[in-house]
Design a protein that fits this description.
- This protein has a single domain, classed as Vaccinia Virus protein VP39 (Rossmann fold, 3-Layer(aba) Sandwich).
- The C terminus is likely disordered.
- The strands form 2 sheets. The protein has a 7-stranded mixed beta sheet with strand order 7-6-5-8-9-11-10, sandwiched between helices. It has a 4-stranded antiparallel beta sheet with strand order 1-2-3-4, covered by helices on one side.
- Helix 2 links the parallel strand 5 and strand 6.
- Helix 1 runs parallel beside helix 2.
- The chain is globular, with a radius of gyration of 17 Å.
- The protein has 7 helices and 11 strands.
- Helices cover about 25% and strands about 30% of the residues.
- The protein is an alpha/beta fold.
């Protein structure tokens, strides 16, 4: 068997461990402390994160989407396919090296979506963009860490708290969608979304898409037709 080749390392801000990028033949893997976070041969659930969210407003002119977590670029690529030529996609990635990997060795995996003129790529914490938002986004897609029960960074917990979900609701336009990817199911998180004011659907999706693989969870949480401005301080 072809051995894995280490291509790069990166520290996750906030004592979040060390990311490592590996390659074996045409396959890439990003791991943290021995745990695999993503693999280029298993991105069906990352595709589904964008597809399930964007299908709710695919025909909307000038749609604006915020994506937290660049990964290997598959979620960004799937969103671009679903949305129109006048859409705007803002991608927040907190680890600068992940951005460089997507511009370098990972660029061909998803047909280099970060070069698309509709994409704005920021080396930033997605939480700050959500906190600053107010009726800003048609969708917020979170593929941050391993889901609500994270591995890499304790500060990610604020995204999934009751207060964080309330701020996400405020940042969405009426009828907007908060979509959250997770490696595992979490009934408590679904209830937390409902308590924050979202209408919630829980989707079980395959890591390899139609060809199978492990099951991951995507929550599709939709804001009501009228936003509750000022509900969160």
């Amino acid at each position: 068997m072809i051995p894995w080749e280490l291509l790069g390392k990166a520290r996750v801000p906030g004592n979040g461990g060390e990311l490592r990028l590996y390659k074996r033949g045409n396959e890439f893997s990003i791991r943290v402390d021995g745990h695999e976070l993503m693999n280029s041969s298993r991105h069906g659930s990352e595709d589904a994160l964008a597809e399930l969210a964007c299908e709710r407003f695919a025909g909307r002119a000038g749609a604006c989407v915020l994506i937290g977590g660049l990964g290997m670029g598959f979620t960004v690529a799937a969103a671009l396919k679903r949305l129109g030529r006048d859409c705007r996609i803002v991608v927040a990635e907190i680890v600068p090296e992940v951005i460089e990997w997507n511009r370098g060795p990972l660029s061909a995996l998803a047909n280099n979506p970060v070069r698309d003129r509709r994409v704005t790529l920021l080396a930033a914490d997605v939480a700050g963009l959500i906190w600053a938002g107010r009726l800003t986004y048609d969708a917020i897609l979170l593929d941050v860490d391993n889901g609500p029960e994270g591995l890499t960074r304790k500060d990610n917990d604020q995204l999934y708290s009751a207060n964080g979900l309330g701020k996400a609701l405020r940042a969405l336009r009426p009828g907007g969608v908060l979509a959250v990817w997770s490696a595992t199911a979490n009934e408590g998180f679904a209830q937390r979304l409902k308590m924050a004011g979202f209408m919630v659907e829980v989707k079980s999706v395959r890591a390899r898409g139609s060809s199978g693989g492990a099951r991951h969870t995507v929550w599709i949480a939709q804001a009501g037709p009228q936003e509750r401005i000022g509900a969160v301080k």
